[in-house]
Amino acid sequence: MSDSAPAQLTIARMGTLRLRHTPLVRVTHWIATACFLALLVSGTEIVISHPRFYWGEAGNVMTPPLFSLPIPASRSRVNTGYGFVLADQNGWSRSLHFQTAWLLLFTGVLYTAAGFLNRHFRDNLLPALADLRPQAFGNVVAQHLKFRRPAESGSYNVLQRVTYLVVLFLLFPLMVWTGLAMSPAITSAWPAIVTVLGGHQSARTLHFFVTIALVLFVLVHLAMVIRAGFKDRTRAMITGRVMLGGI
Amino acid sequence: MSKLSRRKLLTAGLAAAGVPGLGVAARLVNRYGLIPPDHGGLYGPGQTLTYASQRLLTGNALAREFSPRDISTPCVNGTPPKSEDFQRLQAGGFAEWRIQLDGMVSRPGPYLLSEIKKFPARSQITHLACEEGWSFIAEWTGLPLAHLLEAAGTLPQAKYVVYFTMDPDDPSWLESIDMNEALHPQTLLTYGMNGAELPVPHGGPVRLRVPRQLGYKSTKWLTRLTVTDTLKGFGVGRNAEDGFQWYAGI
After folding, report:
1. CB B76 within 8 A of CB B137
2. Which end of chain B is more exposed for a tag (fewer CB within 10 A), N or C?
3. Where does B95-213 show beta strands of DSSP type E?
4. What's the fold here for domain B32-241?
5. Which among B66, B72, B243 has the least Cβ separation from residue A92?
6. Residue A245 pLDDT class (50, 70, 90 cuts)
7. Closest Cα to residue B206, out of B109, B99, B74, B76?
8. How far is B71 from chain A, CA to nearest CA, in Å?
């Protein structure tokens, strides 16, 4: 009794407590966060064993690269110009990378299936046609460019909706596709998944480009969370609840 | 009591369906050989999922083969053996190079390189991808391992082929593949590359090429093949011990 009275007072003063994120969205969000970090660290470790990228089917130190990363390598074969070789951590990195990819795939399938079934995508992520009109879209972009502090509206704006849909239905599937296209076993059964990309090395280069796109997304996402109120936004993604209409 | 009964019934029903379900799944998985030898430990679930799904999904599909104009500049990895034995064999044009075949075969024994070359050869232009990320395409010529195993009479309980090398860095180096990979038509005891003898830096005189898996399963300077129903006593090999995937179809 004595505990709940002040709590209710606080709520009354600040506004109404509302469910912002469903338990499934919250759980899959944090699993995906952990998976992304594990994939990024292990993927970086794999890349530094050969920080050169190629286009087409084949490429190695005897052939010209499409581009090289200006970093030292963890294997001596690549002449990076640094005169030293980093610690080789490829073994566990690869095992972590593939196991995490499985976990993220299962998480993604669960989230996507639920998102269609409970209308999460239709209600919360599909932008309204009116919002996609150049003027309406431009207004939201302008708001962002003016660095206005975003307020809790209980819903996503059109930029968020488009971005989340691109990440979920373009970048994530591209990551799985380009990853599988590097598997000599998978491409034996389905050669088209690598030939349409231009070859094995093209798939590896695209896998890297999509990584860059996802890292940029996470950086902007984090910046926006901080801008909108790190504690409130993070609490909402943990407890599921936000204050609406508070002082 | 009546409130709880439905939940109890549901739980009991799920358990009743689940336990035999798991049993059936385990039997199926064992029967089709879907558990890799590195299924234990922290990354065991990932290795098992990859191995089982790729074995089920890819079957006996052939690795991609290319046309002669796709052959690319090769890249050499590692240094050839420097031992006196190897030098002596090399000086003799590898005429005395033997591959010991033993284990679960009816007719074990050493095979001279010249005997291996008497079998009908297969040539294929395939991609070799290193786990580091680089790759090249070459034409590989050799004897399909399946033909040698057939000639030697592999026993039906065989599950793996363990293979050994004269690798200078580690004399205890070994690798292994399952029978699906060993009997695959593209798994070659390779002695020719791009129309010539297989160069020593590329594993000459004989290298086991496993084109559906990453390069580290394609062991160079091959000396011995052991057919077995268990990897006990051999281990999974240094690569898998160092955290790499025993099954490298990725």
Report:
1. no
2. N
3. 98-103, 109-112, 122-129, 135-144, 160-165, 174-178, 188-193, 196-197, 207-209
4. Sulfite Oxidase; Chain A, domain 2 (3.90.420)
5. B243
6. low
7. B99
8. 9
